[in-house]
Write a structure and sequence with these properties.
The complex is a heterodimer. By secondary structure, chain A is mostly helical. In chain A, about 70% of the residues lie in helices and about 0% in strands. Chain A has eight helices and no strands. Chain B is built from 16 helices and no strands.
């Protein structure tokens, strides 16, 4: 690559990876057991799941603490920094592909499976033999399929809360960038202010999102069971919401680390990684706003 | 060059740590983690292989012989899951772990702790998956592809889905690590176009892994929510479509089959030049062919679904796109043969496996081309023809390359030469019995025997019996391999030289045999004459 490295760095042995494998296993084992529990069975799976989740949180705390300590001790050179950056970039790429699967499902359902069920193009016979009275449509008039899965429902209007949430997330992207510039310029007060604002905007987004979900369930009868409309709506916005939650927590941790003076203008990979993640979450939302709410 | 590796612990400098847990569970050493991967993979090969033995035992004669149909279905599904995610993929990751840092002159993988996590997830994931065989409802029995609505009837779906999530996380982290290692940890002077083809093949494979494992995660997550949370992705009554699952699955699944063959291409591209004592023919063409195959792998997925009722335009597009793959693959096969042309060849065990790979993988490629034809595929879709096809590319393809790689690099790993005699016994038995096992399945398929059934028409009896005999003997032959491995690691008196093979070129042959616990702590000085591809100027 032509760049000069002072020295190769190989980290010391650590028990965290092994702990991570154990707690991840505990979590999914508990979850699988819980899902398969007979009605009335005691909460063995649930307890294991809770222990697993606590273990995962503890593992993240412990592993990141040891990495942060090593970073503060100056163990990481520029080559390690580059490896971390590549790791984060490719991780985000994998997340893009994960959302890609759900967006792909949405497009396939809207372009093919629902029209075909309505007798268009390729699906004439299915329509003829099974559901000849079904008219293909998206949204409230047919998005839950020929059997009206989940019953009649109404959709969330795009130009209410979702628009507000779009503005909130876009603003948060601006504030996190201002914080980044402040970090590069070394203005700590300004970083704390704008990063803090970003965290608050993220939390506000989540509050409105929760509000929207409650309204969808209580007022609109739009639920996870509302045919493929409900499936794609809640899975896409739900996974996005989980990522916003994670991003907000990460931003809050970075805020605390700024407060403790962990970053300087040259060494702040942790900050940048979280900022990248936040922009990614933002871009996914734009896709959602466009394809789930507006169109 | 005065760079020195830095460690937090100074005792780390001089060799492997003593404690068992310390060394194997807390490792940040690419060689130890590579060894763990390889041992895990070998274990899974025998577990998955024992499932295959049960399948062949049931199919030995027509009629129901040994097991209940549901158990038979469990065996076919689990055999595939264990072999794909437990044997083949971890073996390539293990080889990559061991060899990539040595080949590019890096002291270790770029992210050594994540490397350890990638490995340790796997034993737990497979414990979860295999435990379903002992649960009240039984294991997954809807095939490894887990098509809905059949797979949704399985009471162990959640276990299988979560196990796949864990394997996916492991694969993605492993792939990120390999990309970061190759792009960021190469010794100064090791340009991208001087890298061994094996390293190139892994770079491209790692990209494929990161691109498609999340799609699989998405697909199985939809299965999970359809079964347990009342979504309707794959339920036409709710507006969904079971074919949607197949699209997402094969968007993962087709690149996945190249994930299992591209590193094999890389291995063959290392072994053949060594034993032909010639540089590889058309290095750049080899690299671009791999990249080309990887690109095409994203636009051919629906050739697995010709019989589900796709629109005609889609069938034609995917047919032609699929046939296009034979062009870069043909380039590779041509170049391997051209590398051997006029070389001064010797036939040690790795070379034998490599040559068998080239011939038998090509047979698998041709049968693939046959099935790429839509009208022909209608005839033998879901028959034993496809079973024969993918076993030719995965057993005599991927697995033979892995075994060849093990023989090729074993002296570097252990410091001892393996027994050439027993290696050749292993090879000749493998290559004969694997053909007895799989070649008759072509005929069975063309005659119309469907796959995934425990009983069959008496018309298929002869070929099934031949196939089963081949299967048992091929399985038994692999015990020789274990014997050779154990002998080489612990009992062989014949020490390996540093270079091991007369014609071997590349950085991995400049270090002592066995490879010391830490290598290239100071970046090596790259001498182009030492490299297999030091002078690429075509």
């Amino acid at each position: 690559m032509g760049q000069q490295h002072d020295a190769y760095f190989v980290p010391a042995k650590s028990y965290w990876p092994f702990v991570a494998a154990v707690v991840m296993f505990t979590t999914v084992f508990g979850a699988a057991h819980w899902l398969n529990a007979e009605p009335g069975e005691t909460g063995f799976g649930k307890s294991v799941l809770i222990i697993g989740v606590i273990g995962v949180l503890g593992m993240f705390f412990g592993w990141f603490r040891s990495v942060i300590n090593e970073s503060l001790a100056g163990s990481y050179n520029s080559q390690v920094d580059t490896s971390f950056r590549m790791g984060m970039m490719w991780f985000i790429f994998s997340e893009v592909m994960f959302f890609g699967a759900f967006f792909g499902a949405l497009f396939y359902i809207r372009m093919f499976s629902v029209p075909w069920l309505g007798g268009h193009g390729h699906g004439v016979l299915t329509h003829e033999f099974l559901w000849s009275d079904y008219t293909a449509a998206w949204g409230a008039n047919g998005g839950n399929g020929p059997e009206q899965a989940g019953g009649a429902f109404r959709t969330v209007p795009a130009w209410g809360l979702p628009l507000l949430n779009t503005v909130i997330l876009l603003t948060s992207s601006v504030t996190v960038t201002i914080a980044h510039h402040a970090l590069r310029a070394g203005h700590r007060g300004k970083i704390l202010l704008f990063l803090g604002l970003t965290v608050l905007l993220g939390a506000t987004f989540l509050y409105f999102q929760a509000h929207e979900y409650i309204e969808a369930y209580k007022e609109l009868n739009l639920t996870l069971h509302s045919g493929v409309y409900g499936s794609t709506f809640f899975m896409l916005t739900g996974f996005h919401g989980m990522h916003v939650t994670l991003g907000t927590i990460m931003l809050a941790v970075i805020w605390l680390r700024v407060l403790k003076g962990h970053f300087d203008k040259d060494h702040h990979f942790g900050f940048e990684a979280v900022a990248w993640y936040w922009h990614f979450v933002d871009v996914v939302w734009l896709g959602l706003f466009m394809f789930v709410y507006i169109l | 060059m005065s760079y020195a590796a830095t460690h937090d612990q100074h005792d780390d400098h001089h060799g492997a740590p003593k404690g068992f847990f310390q060394r194997w569970c807390m490792s940040t050493n690419h060689k130890d983690i590579g060894t763990l991967y390889l041992i895990f993979s070998l274990t899974m090969l025998f577990i998955g292989g024992s499932f295959a033995m049960l399948i062949r035992a049931e199919l030995f004669k027509p009629g129901m012989q040994l097991m209940q149909p549901y158990f038979f279905n469990e065996m076919t599904a689990m055999h595939a899951l264990v072999m794909i995610f437990g044997a083949i993929m971890p073996a390539f990751v293990g080889l990559g772990n061991w060899m990539i840092p040595l080949m590019v002159g890096a002291p270790d993988m770029a992210l050594p702790r994540m490397n350890n996590l990638s490995f340790w997830i796997l034993p737990f994931a497979f414990a979860l998956l295999l435990s379903t065989l002992f649960l009240p409802g039984g294991g997954p029995a809807g095939g490894w592809t887990m098509y809905p609505p059949l797979s949704l009837q399985s009471s162990s779906l959640a276990y299988a889905v979560f196990a796949i999530h864990l394997m996916g996380i492991s694969s993605i982290m492993g792939a990120i690590n390999i990309i970061a290692t190759i792009l960021n940890m190469r010794a100064p002077g090791m340009d991208l176009m001087k890298m061994p083809v094996f390293v190139w093949s892994w770079l491209i494979t790692a990209f494929l892994l990161i691109a498609v494992m999340p799609a699989l995660a998405g697909a199985v997550t939809m299965l999970l929510t359809d079964k347990y949370f009342g979504t309707n992705f794959f339920n036409p009554g709710g507006g969904g479509d079971p074919v949607l699952y197949q699209h997402i699955f094969w968007f993962f699944g087709h690149p996945e089959v190249y994930i299992m063959i591209l590193p094999a291409f890389g291995i063959i591209s290392e072994i053949v030049p060594t034993f032909a004592r010639k540089p590889i023919f058309g290095y750049k063409a080899m690299v671009f062919a791999i990249a080309c195959i990887a690109f095409l792998s994203f636009i051919v997925w629906a050739h697995h679904m010709f019989a589900v009722g796709l629109p005609l335009g889609a069938e034609i597009f995917f047919m032609y796109a699929t046939m296009l793959i034979s062009v870069p693959t043909g380039v590779k096969v041509f170049n391997w043969v051209a590398t051997m042309w006029g070389g001064s060849m010797t036939f040690e065990t790795p070379m034998l496996f490599a040559i068998a790979f080239i011939i038998l993988f090509t047979i698998g490629g041709f049968s693939g081309l046959m099935m790429a034809l839509v009208p022909a595929d209608f005839q033998y879709h879901d028959t034993y023809f496809i079973v024969a096809h993918f076993h030719y590319v995965l057993v005599t393809g991927a697995l033979f390359a892995i075994i060849g790689a093990a023989y090729y690099w074993m002296p570097k790993w252990t410091g001892n030469m393996y027994s050439e005699f027993w290696g050749k016994v292993h090879f000749w038995n493998s290559v004969v019995w694997v053909n007895v096992l799989f070649f008759p399945q072509h005929f069975l398929g063309l005659a119309g025997m469907p796959r995934r059934i425990p009983d069959y028409n008496v018309a298929f009896a002869n070929f099934n019996m031949i196939s089963s005999i081949g299967g048992f003997l091929f399985g038994a032959t692999q015990l020789i391999f274990v014997g050779v491995l154990i002998h080489c690691a612990f009992f062989s008196k014949k020490k390996a030289t540093d270079r091991v093979w007369e014609g071997a070129k590349g950085l991995e042959w400049t270090i002592p045999s066995p490879a010391p616990h830490h290598t290239f702590e100071v970046p090596p000085v790259i001498n182009d004459d030492e490299l297999a591809h030091g002078h690429v100027n075509d």
